[in-house]
Amino acid sequence: MMSSEHLACGWLQKLLVVLVKLCFAFAGPQRPLNGTGCTARGPASYILVFTGHWNPQSFPKQYPLFRPPAQWSKLVAVSHNHHFRLWEEGSPASPGVQSFAEVGVTVELMKAAKEARKKRAAGAMHRTAGIPNGIGHSSTEMLMVPRNPLLSLMVKIIPSPDWFVGLDSLNLCEGNQWKQEVTVDLHPFDAGTDSGFTFSSPNFPTSPPENITQITSQMPNHPANSFYYPRLKELPPIASIRITRQRRSLDRQTSISNHILPNSISPQRFSATPLDCEVSLWSSWGLCLGPCSRGGVRHRTRYILLRPANAGSPCPELEEQAECVPHSCMKKRQ
Question: In the prediction, which pLDDT does 318 show?
């Protein structure tokens, strides 16, 4: 039998080992919360400013002037971690994304975010008012926490079949530091649920639905597409997001959601995108006018589909004539 002194000594040694391990654990780097990689000690307050750059100089093709004119929907933003995605390029659109991208309804989109919040995968949800023009600003204040350092957002392009701009899982935290300012240019995306080619296309569901894809100057590769500019390597930014960290004031009680601070937006110089003239195919040749094969001529025509803009290629001739040939002449009856 072991003496009580030996037993006590053994327990003390085990306790000492546990204490040493705990000391090393606390002395090491802080573990990120929920696998986010963010070890910041506290939350961060940001001002998010959405700016629309959709204008007839940069996007002259089929630019919507009425019924309705070019404009932006309300902005929907969610802070979250890696266990939630609001939307993802290359993946199918969720019912919420489809509903928002097609008709601008946020009910399903916000319901999915609320379910994720119950599982601690998402945090705060933010919305701003829509912008009634292609050029304009909207803003909101956001409070980001280390558990949910990622930001995703969507804004519908109006009018459009199912097109939107957005951010997917932008990380505002690097290690133990919150980023001070982030600016991102935005380009159009296709939700893959409607097959319309133009801004004002009627509803034409895509069956089966396709994945979310970015719209470029040459994709979809079809002249009827409203963003088809084959002379451009890439589209100019149609919108942008600027996220600026703020110092939270304890005595500030009023929210600055949907408010633009004075002189916070610098004037934007828009590039002029050249738009080439587009014409239809030639019509069939008309009947001969004049003596057949002796000075007689025939005509064919085509019409303008799209007029040029911003020093684009001018329209070619819309009428063409040629001499009659014997096989196009009607033989006289004997």
Answer: 82
Nearest to 226 by CA among 193, 191, 190, 192: 190
- Domain layout of the chain by residue ranges: 34-246, 278-328
Reference 131, options 255, 306, 265; nearest CA is 265
CATH dotted code for 34-246: 2.60.40.2130
Q: What are phi and psi of 297, to 5 degrees?
A: -130, 160
For residue 62, give both structure tokens. Answer: 């089929």
Average pLDDT over residues 123-144: 93
Q: Give the span between the Cα atoms of 264 and 222, in whole angstroms.
A: 39
Q: Under a CB-based contact definition with an 8 Å cutoff, are residues 149 and 171 in contact?
A: yes
Residues for the chain: how many in total?
A: 334
What DSSP assignment string belongs to 156-204? EEES-SSEEEEEEEEE-EETTEE-SEEEEEE--EE-SSB---STTPPP-
Helices (H) and strands (E) in the chain, counts: 3, 16
Cα(187)–Cα(214) distance, integer angstroms: 7
DSSP state of 113: H
Q: Determine how many CB atoms are found less than 10 A away from the CB of residue 33.
A: 17
**Percent of the chain topping pLDDT 90:** 57
Look-up: residue for tokens 């109006």? 158
Question: Which DSSP category does 328 fall into?
Answer: G
Determine the pLDDT at residue 251.
44
Domain 278-328 class? Answer: mainly beta
* Residues forming a β-bridge with 300: 320
Tokens of 110: 């916000």
**16: which residues sit within 8 A by CB, 6+ positions away?**
none
Flag whether the pTM goes above 0.70.
Answer: yes
The residue-averaged pLDDT of 17-32 equals 51
Q: What are phi and psi of 240, to 5 degrees?
A: -150, 160
